[in-house]
Amino acid sequence: MRRLLKLILDLIFPKICASCGQPNPESNILCQQCLTGIPINSGWFCPLCQRRLPTPQNSCHPTAGFILAAATPYVAKAVQEIVQALKYRQLENAVSDLTFVLKEYLEKISKELADWLPSEVILLPVPLHSRKERKRGFNQSWLLAQAAEKILSGRFPEKIFRLEKNAIKRTKNILSQTECRDYRQREENVKNIFLAADPKGIKNKTIIIVDDVFTSGATMREAVKTLKAAGAKKIMALVIAKA
Question: 149 with 122: CB under 8 angstroms?
Fold first, then answer.
């Protein structure tokens, strides 16, 4: 009965690709052509000047305290569609499309990444305020962190990747960064919004902190500041897209 109902609904409301608008029989947000057509980066970026870097060891602004690993440019329409489908329309099946992008990127940078990774790494999401997470139903960064853990564990089975959802917490329910007028307001909006819930678990650890989009970088820098204050040894920000 359920299969019949699904067939009828698919006939009445055929699925289309969110990017090109063509019929899309897959359960994903994008059709296969649009998904595989997404441009994938092959290196790292400076989180301050956004310069492309060949390896994570060669940051042009080491005082930033972290290296940026961004899978794809946010300017691509297909990328915007899958990110927004997850983040704003609560379509969790977008995670499979985003996981594909993440896997392609991590494969491309795997050789240099292997040199950067120690034997044990903590993966954590940029946290949402509990009120916002309840309203949305999930934290998209946590879903992406889980996907990253599976990909990295499969690619580097000799290393330990430990997921920590609550290593840092968001203490204020602030204005959305998309509603801020400019760079300065974004910086002020996120000031002191994070708290290290387990400083002992962070001290001297290598951290990969996961998010969906790196725009001005204000939120990520504030999270990194909190992790560094708790004693984190080195940090990589892993994001789907860089605006």
Answer: no
Helix (H) or strand (E) holding 53: strand 52-53
Question: Which amino acid is located at 163 in the chain?
Answer: L
Closest CA to 150 of 188, 102, 115, 113: 102
* Residue with the two structure tokens 């997470």: 133
Q: Which of the 8 DSSP states describes residue 16?
A: B
How large is the C-alpha radius of gyration of the chain? Answer: 18
Contact 193, 171 (CB under 8 A): yes
- Distance between terminal CA atoms of the chain? 45
**Range scoring the smallest mean pLDDT among 33-37, 113-117, 141-145, 192-196:** 192-196
Token pair belonging to 242: 């860089």
- The predicted-structure confidence for 165-189, as pLDDT tens digits, reads as follows 989 988 865 546 565 655 576 666 7
Among candidate residues 230, 182, 233, the one with its CA nearest the CA of residue 205: 233
| Residue 52 bridge partners (DSSP) | 45
Cα-to-chain-centroid distance, residue 90:
16
Closest by CA to 66, choosing from 242, 237, 193, is 237
Q: 192-228: per-residue pLDDT in tens? A: 888 898 888 999 999 999 999 999 898 999 999 999 9
Q: How far, in Å, CA of 85 to CA of 103, rounded?
A: 19
